[in-house]
Amino acid sequence: MLQTEFWAKFKESSGWRSNKYGQLYGLSRFLPLRKSILYFPEIPQDGRFSDVFKDIKGDSTPGRIFSRFEFLELWSPALAGRLVRLGLVKAFEDVQPEYRQWLLLDKSEQELLKGMKPKGRYNINLAKKHHLKIDWGITDQSVKILFELYDQTAKRANFRGRALAYFQLLAKTLADNQAGDIIIVSKDGQPLAALLLSFYGGVCSYLYGGSGDDRNLMAPYLTHWEAIREAKKRGLTVYDLLAIAPFPSSAKSHPHDGLTRFKTQFGGQSIRLLGSWDLVQSHFWYSLYKFVERRRRPAVQWKSINTTDDLY
Q1: What is the enclosing helix (H) or strand (E) of 166?
Q2: Which of 67, 151, 181, 187 could form a disulfide with 38 if both were Cys (CB 3.0 to 4.6 A apart)?
Q3: CB proximity list for 179: less than 8 A, separation 6 or greater
Q4: pLDDT tens for each residue of 67-94
Q5: CB under 8 Å to 79, separation ≥6 — which residues?
């Protein structure tokens, strides 16, 4: 989806400039002192990339610090080695998450439930017993509810959240292109949990979500389960829960450990993508840019989808 014309136009609303390079969309951001960076979100490592890479490598655009290529392919030493030989370096941060939880939808609902961890399956059934109300649709009201629950979650988890205007424009973009929806779960008129989902290219992705303080009704579990069911109805093949903590895990705890425990309750596969790679075009400014960005916000936040990233 991040390689569509409508997504490129959407990103222009938040300060990026989009251009078509061959068959791929690239996003440019202009920085002080006439510097800039170029970013190609979620591209395949095939002929389309090869053609564009040759042009970008030979490009001498004044002030460009680096060009970032983000690959939506599973990690392998062979693919990584090919990028190294091309002169790319692994990016010092990922824009979209490199480590994700994917649930393949080529099974019946009963098989999907059976494949979940016992706690996940139990909590879904517990939520069902409370007869929670499920609503779908992108409206002014549903966007506002989503944002309020998201904002509560951001404050509770102490991360920097998005503004309401961002959600309004993102939801409108998805609705106008029939590429997403909002699900809200409530009880007696009180919203408990909500998700903003995208539907594109056979994949349902969990983009943003939030929940209230009531943990007894297990609304977040039912919300994701209903999203999974909807994705199956639409004939999609993957439910992408997005960011999890890097693996294999080390003895040192990771800030996303709790998030990972929640997402893995739904079963599926923990995967690693090839992720982001940089073509450094000014080594001095690249080092300075990296230093400033890591001081500006903690490095671990770069791994946090649904929270602090600057592309979704």
Answers
A1: helix 164-176
A2: 67
A3: 1, 6, 173, 198, 199, 200
A4: 999 999 999 999 999 999 999 999 999 8
A5: 45, 71, 73, 274
